[in-house]
Predict the structure.
Amino acid sequence: MSDRVTITPLKDGPDQITGPVTVLDEDGNILKETESAFLCRCGHSANKPFCDGAHKREGWTSN
Ligand code: FES
C-alpha cells in the first residue's frame, strides 16, 4: 500500500480517490476513513460528497 493519494477523474463519472484518505464534511466531521472513495463531480448525487450513481441516470458526461 502506498501512502500517496491518487485522484483519478473517471470518464463520465466520479473522481476516484485511492490511498489512505479521510473525507470530512464542511464542519470538519469525519464522514469516512478509507483506502478508496468515489466523489461526485456531476452535482446530481443525493449523498454528496460521495457518488451515488446518479451521473448515469442523468446522462452526465465529463466532456
Ligand atoms: S459523479 Fe456519480 S453521482 Fe455525481
